[in-house]
Amino acid sequence: MPWHFTLSASPPRLHFISAGQGREVWRVKGRRMILFFRLFYKKFVPSRHKRQTGKTMKKLKLSGKDIRRAGIKDSEVISVVKNVMQKHYKHSSKGEVQLILQDIAENPQRYLKHEKLSKIAEKLYQPAEEKSEKQKTQHIALKEEKTFEIFGEDFIEPSALDQMHTAMKLPIALKGAVMPDAHQGYGLPIGGVLAAENAVLPFGVGMDIGCRMAMSIYPLEGRVIKRDSKKLKNILMENTRFGRAEFDESKEHPVLEREEFKNISFLKGLHKKAYDQLGTSGHGNHFVDLGILEVTDESNLPGVSAGQYLAVLSHSGSRGMGAEIARHYTEVAREKLELPKGARQLAWLSLDTEEGQAYWQAMTLAGDYSAANHDYIHRKLAKALGEQPIRRIENHHNFAWIETGPDDARWVVHRKGATPAAKGDLGIIPGSMAAPAFVVEGKGYESSLNSAAHGAGRLMSRSKAKKTYTEKQIKGVLKDKGIELIGGSADEAPMVYKDIHKVMELQRDMVGIEATFYPKIVRME
Fold it and tell me: Is pLDDT of 4 > 70?
């Protein structure tokens, strides 16, 4: 045996002694001493327990939040931790695993040659000279606030405007606008638009990178929804997945073969998540609706004559991959820049840096992945319906674009919960599960930075909504509107949203309405 251990009583310590050299190589106290005995005990107990009871121990389920509690914050490392611990410690308890991870986080050098944990240690360990270099941060002072346009100020909660006031004091801020559906978010408010100078703000883009609206218009009259309601509900149930639910089938899509997954080390650990969640929709306000699209003038949508059509409308984004990218690169930005309290979530990355370029590539991939999700959803539904759409319309938000500002300046325009509305741009602005959505064409309004609202916008928080409205109240509203709901919850009740008609009136200079979509069968988590 290369080493042995002894236990001292006062104070209680566990001492590991090298047998060859006769010297102490490791000393354990407190919770880690308890951990040692637990792991020693578990080496023998599980098999005996299984023989006696015939029960199989539950497999370890480890979330990103569990790992962060152990002191590991980096999203790239979290992905590695999940893979390693669920492979090698799948029958350990969550508490035991967290204790192990706490020790690795504090002393990664001890685990660099560990048979199972070395991969985690290598991600966490940094030689002293590298660590000191990484910890160098630039202290940033806020500047005099630049003015910005507010559309529907009386319609917007003060906390959202406070966030925009802070953003407009950043040294890199050039111009801003707040859409009429705005409400408080992380970093920029949702419904906030910010033009920055050669820099990108991960939380100016948001967590659900490239979140998207997509509509398929079918050569079927809208009345088929009422006639074939049961069949159409079954099609929605069988061909859509929400939240943690995934399709148990082999998946192929060009986005999964992208080089970014190989070239950017952080993205390597997200490939499996991207594969598993392809074709699915997220939590909250994400949906897939069947409804009636009403076109009043055949000149509004080329290729679609005036009339009423069966249409599919979906809202979802880049799922877990987008959220991990946002968290990771926000931490990278915050390590480089020390902003005053209240502005720290607005840390940015210069596009002249390696990290800025890596985020831009990751953001672009996430946006394309969001488009792939909708493509997967709409292709499955088209196959189930036995029809091909005559027209597809889609747009995304929660993204940053490089655009030309005054005097041919290069602007990085962040639209967090805002629809691109340059002249001629087609987009979709939804209301709620009980309110219409609108197909719109942008007018290129410079004061809004060629942007418009991305929806009706919330009137209250999710927690307040759950306390305020009941399932019975929601069903009553939907019944009056002739709408059937599959899934959904009180936090998405129609009453928690602003009046979409008022929102559209407040942005009449930004977009024109080309067609109206009335939801009839709504599918949510």
Answer: no
Torsion region of 321: left, alpha or beta (phi above 0 gives left; psi -120 to 50 gives alpha): alpha
Q: Which residue has the higher pLDDT, 206 or 15?
A: 206
Using the structure block, give the residue that is written with the tokens 């720290």: 344
Side chain identity at residue 119, one-letter code: K
Q: How many helices and strands (H and E) does the chain possess? A: 19, 22
- 203: closest CA among 333, 113, 314? 333
Those residues with Cβ within 8 angstroms of residue 131's Cβ, 6 or more apart along the chain or in another chain: none
Helix orientation angle between 354-385 and 229-239, rounded to the nearest 10 degrees: 140
Mean pLDDT along residues 512-523:
98
Query: Does residue 290 contact residue 312 with C-beta atoms inside 8 Å?
Result: yes
- Per the CB < 8 A criterion, the answer to whether 350 and 360 are in contact is no
Closest CA to 347 of 334, 364, 357, 358: 334
Asked if residue 95 has pLDDT above 90, the reply is no
Q: Are 316 and 370 in contact (CB under 8 A)?
A: yes
Q: Which whole-number Å values give the CA distances from 208 to 76, 367, 387, in the listed order? A: 17, 9, 31
The kind and range of the H/E element at 28 are: strand 24-28
- Predicted pLDDT of residue 34: 59
Segment 128-147, tens digit of pLDDT? 555 444 456 788 999 999 99
C-alpha 518/C-alpha 404 separation (Å) is 36
| Structure token pair of residue 26 | 């490791």
Q: In the numeric block, which tokens belong to residue 8?
A: 């001292």
Per-residue confidence (pLDDT) for residue 69, from 0 to 100:
84
31 — pLDDT class (breaks 50, 70, 90): low
Question: For the chain, first and last CA: distance in Å?
Answer: 56
Q: How far apart are CA 49 and CA 296, in angstroms?
A: 71
The model carries a pTM of: 0.78
| C-beta separation of 437 from 519 below 8 A | yes
Structure tokens at 204: 């100016």
Pinpoint the alpha helices (H) of 395-470.
462-468
Residue pointed to by tokens 């928690």? 496
pLDDT at residue 53 in the model: 42
Alpha helix ranges (H) inside 19-134? 30-42, 45-53, 64-69, 75-88, 94-106, 118-124, 128-134
What the block records as the tokens of 283 is 């939590």
Q: Is 279 left (phi over 0), alpha (psi -120 to 50) or beta?
A: left
The arithmetic mean of pLDDT across residues 356-381, rounded, is 97
Residue 468 has a CB neighbour count (10 Å cut-off) of 15
- Asked whether 419 and 452 are in contact (CB, 8 A), the reply is yes
Give residue 54's pLDDT band: very low, low, confident or very high (50, 70, 90): very low
Phi, psi of 398 (to 5 degrees): 55, 60
- pLDDT band, residue 58 (cuts 50/70/90): low
SS3 category, 294: strand
Q: Which is nearest to 443 in space by CA: 419, 420, 418, 423?
A: 423
Nearest alpha carbon to residue 201 among 337, 45, 387, 38? 337
Cβ 204 vs Cβ 346: under 8 Å: yes
The whole-angstrom distance between residue 12's C-alpha and the CA centroid of its chain comes to 46
